[in-house]
Amino acid sequence: MRIWSLGSGSRGNALVVASGDRAVLVDCGFGPRALAMRLKRLGLVPEMLEALIVTHEHQDHADGAAKAHHKWRLPVYASAGTHAALRDIPAKYRMTLAPGTSVDVGAFTVEAAAIPHDAREPLAVALTATASGARVGIAHDLGAVPAALERLFARCDALCLEANHDATMLREGPYPRALQERIRGGRGHINNDEAAALAVRLAHPGLRALSLLHLSETNNAPEVAARAVQAALAKARVHVTAHPAAGRTPEALCAFDSASIGTQLALGL
Ligand SMILES: [Zn+2]
Ligand SMILES: [Zn+2]
């Protein structure tokens, strides 16, 4: 399994998750030209994409979804609520991803959990590669951490978790009070400490990669997020390195051949 970020944050989000040469796109906050250019910078091509999963309808996650569908004929997987908000995707390409169920998408089995965020029916997703059993949990915008998400993300080989803001930087920063309250009000975005606590709870011996996503450019910084999460992991004696996503530039997040020993044991393989 290999995972790349094409961009992360309020200016546009998209992740590519690949098993061998087959891949799916998770969120599409970029138009087709920008998407193709970002893929090219990573040595990837749009033709490797077999499907698009949209976590929720906000512009930074879904702005390019319909155009990407039309250009590359991608089926679009999303919750019923998200589909209701997405436009211009023909019915036969709208695939419903219901919380608590799993569906085969290209080279993966995809499971979803409902999460709190100020969108119609936002989801967190876990993708398990059919060939290798490798598993990644992806939570983009996340206002709080429900028990269903922790169950879904247990024993992942890789985690991609939002670490949106530093609580002090948000409180002392330029955002007006009402916006601050929307961000931290349980249906907005989790902060670095909440992401750190979640990572500690989800950690297990087979966890090999932890990426921090959707960092605010105003109320966070990569080194601030990494320091907060790494300190919590060290305190809990978890030996994994937290990698803050670059934000505006595409980058490789992680790569590994197969499910970890820990995951194999958990799955009874
Ligand atoms: Zn977002
Ligand atoms: Zn959002």
Give the strand order of the largest sheet, numbering strands 1, 2, ... along the chain: 6-5-4-3-2-1-14
The sequence of SSEs as H and E is: EEEHEHHEHEEEEEHEHHHEHEEH
| Overall morphology | globular
**Fraction of residues in helices?**
25-40%
The SS-based structural class is alpha/beta
Q: Tell me the number of strands.
A: 14
Task: Identify low-pLDDT runs.
Answer: none
What is the mean pLDDT? 95
What portion of the residues fall into strands of 2 or more residues? 25-35%
Please give the largest β-sheet: 7 strands, mixed
**Distance N terminus to C terminus?**
18 Å
- The radius of gyration over CA amounts to 17 Å
Q: How many H/I helical runs?
A: 10
Which molecules other than protein and nucleic acid are bound?
zinc ion
Write a structural description.
The chain has 269 residues and is of the alpha/beta class. Helices cover 30% and strands 26% of the residues. The protein has 10 helices and 14 strands. The chain has a 7-stranded mixed β-sheet with strand order 6-5-4-3-2-1-14. The chain has a 7-stranded mixed β-sheet with strand order 7-8-9-10-11-12-13. Strand 3, helix 1 and strand 4 form a beta-alpha-beta unit. Helix 8 runs parallel beside helix 9. The relative contact order is 0.15. The structure holds zinc ion (ZN) (2 copies).
